[in-house]
Amino acid sequence: MNDPEKTANGDQPTRARHASRHGPARATVAIAFVHGMLAGLRQAGRDPAALLARAQLAPELLGEATARVPVDRYAELYNLTNQELDDEGFALFSLPMRVGTFEFLCRSVITAPTLAEAIARSIRFLRLLLPDLTVGLVSDAEQARLIIEEARPLSVGRIFAFEWLLRLLHGLFSWLVGRNLVLDSVSFPYPRPPHADDYALIYTAQSRFDAPRLAASFAASLLDLPVRRDEAALQAFLDGAPGKLTTLYRRDREMVQRVRNVLRETLPGAPSQAAVAHSLHLSPRTLHRRLEEEGSCFQAVKDALLRDLAIDRLEKSSLAIARIAAELGFADTAAFYRAFRRWTGMGPAGYRRRLQSVAQRQSTLPNGLAKTDGKAV
Nearest to residue 139, comparing CAs of 163, 161, 123? Predict the structure, then answer.
């Protein structure tokens, strides 16, 4: 069994030396995200050591390729860098995005009736203030795709720029509708980076690379979700934003991941919370508390794992649905059907047809981007 004090990459000494001063942090991100965040500042010849110190991060972390940093410290560094540069775009773009830009983006979308209108407003807003990247939405009856591509070549922090904007928009949209918007797949316009394992936890397990543009796919039915936030909720949300978005709707939490690993290893079994806690050398109460601290619970972790595995098998194999249900530990196909419909709003057979249809269209059209009968916003 893994040592509970190790990081996801097993680097116990790094974790021990560089954890937050307030004790071990259970949620971490790869140091590559810090390098990306600081790329513009360093390009301008400015030393990030003082900012790292204010965020309670050791500067020598930057020299450790496999280091990970506590997510709350990462969020603090995010906001400190924005303030230092007076640029919420981290000095990565041809025009600075002055501090306050994210607040006014939020205010421009908070009154939207639906997610579709919130996305449309966001696209118009960013067109005014972010000339280097273009954002669009393409949808048909089954699938929607948020598209991000370069309008001008990015010379500094290119990978982080795409990571940042997708994370910002996905986090904002998820907050607006009050639920994590599941991304079926994301194609990124660059080779697979060394820290890509984090993508499965931040975006989706279905991350692909070397695409002509970034395309984040999700069920089109989600566009009809109502915006559930109001001015009062926005005031609380803006406290600590936009860096706080790095801690919202995340699945890269260490206890969550450890529970997922135990559950995956025991499939098609269905161990109880008590049995999983025993495997992790914890009491059921401690496991419940740690999951709660990470914004989750045992059933939510189990459902997310089974959903991810089910989607992966539907997309990548021709296994019969009854076989998939059995491999995932469901008592019968009907139980799997009910669960899958609850997770995605569709039955597994219909979901597989949708995935196959999209893949076929993408394989026959230039640049791998399917045309639709819908509209581009």
Answer: 123
- C-alpha dist (Å) from residue 191 to 110, 172, 206, 209, 361: 35, 26, 15, 5, 23
In order of 38, 47, 55, 156, 356, the CA distances from 44 in angstroms are: 10, 9, 20, 11, 47
Instruction: Give 351-375 pLDDT, tens digit per residue.
Output: 888 777 756 655 554 444 443 333 3
Label residue 235 exposed, middle or buried (CB < 10 Å: 0-12, 13-18, 19+).
exposed
**Cβ partners under 8 Å of residue 367, min gap 6:** 212, 213
pLDDT in tens, 294-321: 556 898 788 888 988 888 888 888 999 9
Q: How far apart are CA 188 and CA 253, in angstroms?
A: 23
Q: Across residues 273-296, what is the average pLDDT? A: 86
Instruction: Report the pLDDT value the prediction gives residue 296, as an integer from 0 to 100.
Output: 67
Judge whether 83 and 99 are in contact, CB under 8 Å. Answer: yes
pTM: 0.67
CB count in 10 Å sphere of residue 151? 12
The yes-or-no verdict on residue 95 having pLDDT over 70 is yes
User: What mean pLDDT, rounded, does the chain reach?
Assistant: 84
Cα dihedral across residues 282, 286, 291, 294: positive or negative: negative
Strands 214-219 and 143-150: antiparallel
- Give the Cα separation of 6 and 10 in Å (integer): 5
233 token code pair: 């909720």
CB 224 within 8 A of CB 115: yes
- 3-state class (DSSP) for residue 316: helix
| Spatial contact of 276 and 122, defined as CB atoms under 8 Å apart | no
- Nearest-angstrom CA–CA distance, 187 and 203: 11
**pLDDT tens sequence across 5-58:** 333 333 333 333 333 333 332 457 889 999 999 999 999 999 999 999 999 888
Rounded Cα–Cα distance for residues 358 and 260 (Å): 29
What's the rounded Cα separation, in Å, for the pair 14 and 11?
A: 6
For 344, residues 6+ apart whose C-beta sits below 8 A from its C-beta are 182, 219, 307, 311, 351
